[in-house]
């Protein structure tokens, strides 16, 4: 009888230990979040590295949706279940605050973009900016659609400042996002393209193009803001990612892609 009772006690203790063991092993999965993030297309390559690092350091998973800032903003306003928005400008996250789609107090500038002019057309490689824009060898100039693409809006500001908007308007080709502008240029569909400096730094290619710097005096600062959205308010993982995005490690990686970071 005593032996039987001891066996019961052993089984009971073993069961407690097994429950504890399984709770330790699987608790991290039970408390992990899947975080849905809308990311401006100019930040496509940096977010891949950040996603890899974040998922290795935490148990959370990131699902990335890329597109133009304006397009992502429209999706959020129409109820897209995104937890975080990484815009290519400040205005759209600010609007989300005012529309109560974004959480007040969570918005911050994660990167500051730079605009560049690029060409893979060999006939243009020795010409200077801004005279190159009116060259007879230039038929097509690509920019992001200023209505939806912050870098396209910056390009429009440049053309206005140098009084060339009307003169070259028939040469302008509008793209839905800034990555598309770079790709069209690389494939030879454009003679010139206004692109983000990060695209030039990110793309590994065998074709050597000419890059013209554009003075910051010609366009407004491209401050790219992040904001926590309503669906992400209750997710610990979303808050963890916002904190991670402001870490020194991530800031260094962002700088490596050609952005300025405070």
Explained architecture:
This protein is an alpha/beta fold and 262 residues long. The chain has two domains: 30-112 and 223-256, D-Maltodextrin-Binding Protein, domain 2 (3-Layer(aba) Sandwich); 114-218, Periplasmic binding protein-like II (D-Maltodextrin-Binding Protein, domain 2, 3-Layer(aba) Sandwich). It is built from nine helices and ten strands. It has helices at residues 2-30, 44-57, 69-77, 91-98, 150-161, 178-186, 197-202, 236-245, 248-256; strands spanning 34-40, 61-67, 84-86, 108-113, 115-119, 141-144, 172-175, 192-196, 210-213, 222-228. The strands form two sheets. A five-stranded mixed sheet has the order 2-1-3-10-4. A five-stranded mixed sheet has the order 7-6-8-5-9, sandwiched between helices. It is elongated and about 90 Å long. Mean pLDDT is 90; it is low at 19-29.
Low-confidence stretches: 19-29
Q: Estimate the mean pLDDT confidence.
A: 90
Tell me about the largest β-sheet. 5 strands, mixed
Question: How many structurally independent domains?
Answer: 2
Q: Helicity, in percent?
A: 40-55%
**Distance between the ends:** 74 Å
Strand content: 15-25%
| Topology, number of strands | 10
Structural class comes to: alpha/beta
Do you know the CATH architecture of the largest domain? 3-Layer(aba) Sandwich
CATH superfamily of the largest domain, by name, is Periplasmic binding protein-like II
What's the alpha carbon Rg, rounded to whole Å? 25 Å
Number of helices: 9
CATH class of the largest domain: Alpha Beta
Gross morphology:
elongated
CATH topology of the largest domain: D-Maltodextrin-Binding Protein, domain 2
Spatial order of the strands forming the largest sheet? 2-1-3-10-4
Give the SSE order as H and E letters.
HEHEHEHEEEHEHEHEEHH
